[in-house]
């Protein structure tokens, strides 16, 4: 069972709900505030991509799961059941979301079904490695 699991309508106002839930998870587990800030920024980008690009008819779900691992990391997945990653010439964004996520995350994987659904999987280090 994930430490956090949300399924919400893919609407702009629910991106803030996801951010607040991640902040609450960070507070509850006493995680590094700076690390959680990076997590929230990257997940905001992934969720915004779902809101803007996943559903051509505007209706669908945004799913987010988060697991804090025993090795000092948090693994997060953002999923949709939309149209998949296809070119969109009328895109309202600048195309900087995935590069930003990649710069913040320790690991980033993007996958999905052919023509439908996308999953963005991110892993973040929560604490600086200790020097020995």
The level-1 CATH class = Alpha Beta
CATH superfamily placement: Histidine kinase-like ATPase, C-terminal domain
Q: What structural class do you assign from the helix and strand content?
A: alpha+beta
**N-to-C CA distance:** 34 Å
Percent helix: 25-40%
Strand proportion, as a percent range, falls in 25-35%
Work out the oligomeric state of the chains in this entry. single chain
Q: Number of folding domains?
A: 1
Radius of gyration, in Å, reads 15 Å
Specify the overall morphology: globular
* Spatial sequence of strands, sheet with the most strands: 1-2-3-5-4
Q: H/E element string?
A: EHHEEHEE
Tally of contiguous helical segments: 3
Count of strand segments:
5
Low-confidence stretches: none
**CATH architecture call:** 2-Layer Sandwich
Features:
Heat Shock Protein 90
Protein described:
It is a single chain. The protein is built from three helices and five strands; from the N terminus they run E-H-H-E-E-H-E-E. It is of the alpha+beta class and 132 residues long. It has a single domain (4-125), classed as 2-Layer Sandwich (Heat Shock Protein 90), CATH 3.30.565.10. Strands 1-2-3-5-4 form a five-stranded antiparallel β-sheet, with helices on one face. Strand 4 and strand 5 form a beta hairpin. It is globular.
């Amino acid at each position: 069972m994930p430490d956090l699991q949300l399924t919400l309508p893919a609407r702009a106002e629910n991106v803030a709900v996801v951010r607040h839930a991640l902040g609450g998870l960070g507070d509850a587990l006493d995680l590094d505030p700076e690390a959680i800030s990076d997590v929230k920024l990257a997940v905001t980008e992934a969720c915004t991509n779902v809101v803007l690009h996943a559903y051509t008819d505007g209706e669908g779900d945004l799913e987010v799961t988060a697991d804090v691992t025993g090795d000092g990391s948090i693994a997060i997945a953002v999923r949709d059941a939309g149209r998949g990653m296809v070119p969109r010439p009328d895109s309202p964004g600048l195309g900087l979301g995935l590069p930003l996520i990649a710069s913040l995350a320790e690991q980033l994987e993007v996958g999905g079904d052919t023509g439908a659904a996308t999953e963005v999987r991110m892993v973040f280090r929560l604490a600086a490695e200790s020097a020995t």
